[in-house]
Amino acid sequence: MIRTLAYTPSQGLRKVADEESIADLLAQTDIVLWMDIEQPTVDDLNRIRSTFGFHELAIEDVERPHQRPKLDYYDTYRFLVLYAVAREDDTLTPSEVDLFVGQRYVVSVHAMPILDLDEAAQRWMQAAVRLDPGVVSLLYALLDAIVDGYFPALDLIADRVEEIEEAMIARTDVDSLALLFALKKQLIALRRVLAPERDILNGFLHRDWPRMPPSAVTYFQDVYDHVVRAIDSMDTYQDLLSNVLDVHVSLASNRLNVVVKRLTAIATILAVPTIVFSLYGMNFRHMPELEWEYGYPVALVSTLVISLAIAIFLRRRDWL
Fold first, then answer.
1. Residues 191-224: pLDDT tens digits?
2. In this structure, are strands 32-38 and 105-110 parallel, antiparallel, or unpaired?
């Protein structure tokens, strides 16, 4: 699906019809174009390659997803690989967004519906008024929309961390442990793509392209700060999950120690009857107690008294 928007200071923002020629629009010196392609086909990629003259290596990177975040410099445009956060069945996954940024256009390509066109267009209009009517405002609006999408995901992660923490402390079931490892895996995957984005934005701020007005640098710095904050939050959540796992191991070990201690106490109590009954279970001919009138009740009562005394002693020692 291809959607194209055009902006001029005189006419504002409008949707470009399919029959309009992109080349003719780019010939206008005061126009800025945004072409958004969702779930691109081979024909879509061939079209933008022929229309904008994109290098075959850049198109190849689009065709092969899961690229590392990067910023490539070509003669007349820049190619960025960034990642947004997509949610599928309560699972957070990084979703690739490819941006071709020229002097008066931006082409965004992504496989999943991660960009709200209306919201991004509104951000673009606001940025065009505050910053610059050129491509700088469009690029800022897209980067800001992508980065702002991290924080609802981080809020969801925070809720899950809290739920897992409460569940792991209350009980040590396998389901909670599986959720913990699944969430750690998601955090690792997200951080793996966010960390390079921080370096990209930092390097992007110190390049002389696009030629940003001084006021725009502050806004791009804000996007960079948001990425840094998102990474710091992910590191914090990873540490929390590691601490929860340590607590889980400690609690499980403590519960095991309690069980072993109680079993040991029971075995100690049963040791006396075991010894006595084993002794009198031997078939020796000469055992005086066997012929004594009170031999059986004395042996039985003595066994019970000694066992009870041991049980009381262990109870006072908190072994039972």
1. 888 889 888 888 777 765 556 677 778 888 889 9
2. parallel
pTM value > 0.70: yes
H or E element that contains 141: helix 135-148
| CA separation, residue 197 to residues 82, 191, 293 (Å) | 7, 10, 92
Rounded Cα–Cα distance for residues 22 and 104 (Å): 12
Neighbours of 60 (CB within 10 A): 11
CB of 97 within 8 A of CB of 111?
no
| Cα–Cα distance for residue pair 150/153, rounded to 1 Å | 5
Contact by Cβ (8 Å): 65, 111: yes
Which backbone phi and psi does 189 adopt, to 5 degrees?
-65, -40
**The amino acid at 69:** P
The set of residues, in sequence order, having a beta carbon less than 8 Å from that of 164 and lying 6+ positions away, is 176, 179, 180, 183, 241, 244
DSSP secondary structure letter of residue 207: S
Pick the CATH number of 2-251 from 3.30.460.20, 3.40.50.80, 3.40.50.300, 3.40.50.150: 3.30.460.20
Distance of alpha carbon 140 from alpha carbon 188, whole angstroms: 27
CA 216, CA 204: separation in Å to the nearest integer?
13
- Find out whether 100 and 79 touch, Cβ atoms under 8 Å: yes
Give domain 252-316's CATH number out of 1.20.58.340, 3.40.605.10, 1.20.1260.10, 3.30.930.10. Answer: 1.20.58.340
pLDDT at 173: 64
> If you ran DSSP here, which 8-state letter would residue 294 be given?
T
From first CA to last CA, the distance across the chain in angstroms is 70
Query: What is the rounded CA–CA span in Å between residue 26 and residue 104?
Result: 8
